[in-house]
Amino acid sequence: MTGEREAIVRRQLGLEPAGLATRMRLAATEALTMGLAYATPLWFARSPTPVPAETIWQFLTRPQLPPIQALVDHWPLAARRERLLREALSVSHADGIQYHYDLSNDFYALFLDRRFMFYTCADFHAPGDTIEDAQLAKANHILGLLDPKPGERILELGCGWGSMLRHIHAATGDAENLSGLTLSHDQLAYIRDNLGLRAEYDDFITRDYGVETLDKVYSIGSFEHIKPDEALPLYRRLHAALRPGGRAVFHFFSLNGTDRWPTSMLGAQAFFPGSVLALHTDHLAWAREAGFRLTHDSSHDYRPTLRAWFDRLVENRAEAERLVGVQVVNKYLAFFATSWSFFNLGKATLHRLVLMKD
């Protein structure tokens, strides 16, 4: 690995390969200060040797005894959780995005679908569906919700590796009026080098969109990175940017329940520093307050996608370890398993919204 890549890997882990005594000390400290939701996946991530995949999956997805689950859900206590998460929100959008996504395009290609490279929830409709089948089904569903037409000015917020930009361009043939925004240098380079579509390095959360400059706007898996205090101003700017009759389609997961500072969001800091999900009820209220009219809200099961990514990374583990190292692969396997459990416990739900500007 290059010196730059080694620096990224070290940043992913927070330390050099750790022996058992160091790992135990770190795990105990983090469990006390940040809780088990944060400390447990990092225990596996920091192993200097490959952790067996099924060991990771079984440990992180198995149901816990009620007292253990209560400890996971309620420690640290509420006031400390809120303080820690508010501190975490100080991480800039660019730093948080680049921490997770600017690792290696080739690494992500090892486990994402081979047609689009979608890094978002897919739609599995039949037991025999592959991740390629399911991501195409997702893309077609979102295409139907957006209903793009040639000549419409359409913007994607957080465009990843250009997956949906490609699908819309194939449907409309109009590349001139289609564009995307990203804060990932690696993703931007991929789009420009491989797709020839318009993408721009900019922060969609703070961007000034102007007034009535867009016909349609959409996002697939980027609203998770909006800090809660930024959401209502963003909804308002997007509403102002759409022309009358304009449409917004947003695909994202959000918290269930009423706790705005759950322990699961402390755990998320190990993978997405600076990102704290909002309640789904808050998203609906913000959209309504901004002037949008909700016409569609569907929920989708993220678990099959996470298991598919886990399995494909296991299949390609040797090459993944060559690209990013043993510990980063351990970390991503723990990430997929932890995320599966997060959805299995009903902590959050993946939604697709259609919002209209009358």
- Per CATH, what is the topology of the largest domain? Rossmann fold
Biggest pleated sheet = 7 strands, mixed
Beta-strand content estimate: 5-15%
Helix content bin: 40-55%
Mean pLDDT: 95
Question: SSE layout and pairings?
Answer:
Layout: H1 3-13, H2 20-33, H3 36-45, H4 53-61, H5 66-74, H6 78-88, H7 93-101, H8 105-109, H9 131-146, E1 154-157, H10 163-172, E2 178-182, H11 185-194, E3 198-201, E4 214-220, H12 228-241, E5 242-255, H13 263-268, H14 280-290, E6 293-300, H15 303-315, H16 317-324, H17 326-344, E7 348-356
Parallel strand pairs: 1-2, 1-4, 2-3, 4-5
Antiparallel strand pairs: 5-7, 6-7
Helix pairs in contact: 2-3, 3-17, 4-17, 12-14, 15-17, 16-17
Protein name: Cyclopropane-fatty-acyl-phospholipid synthase
Organism: Phreatobacter oligotrophus
Family: Belongs to the CFA/CMAS family.
Protein described:
52% of the residues lie in helices and 14% in strands. By secondary structure, the chain is an alpha/beta fold. It has two domains: 3-89 and 303-344, no CATH class; 131-301 and 347-356, Rossmann fold. It has a seven-stranded mixed sheet, with helices on both faces. Helix 4 (53-61) runs parallel beside helix 17 and helix 15 runs antiparallel to helix 17. The longest helix is centred in the last third of the chain and has 19 residues, at 326-344. The protein is globular and about 60 Å long. The protein starts with a helix and ends with a strand. The model has no long low-confidence stretch (mean pLDDT 95).
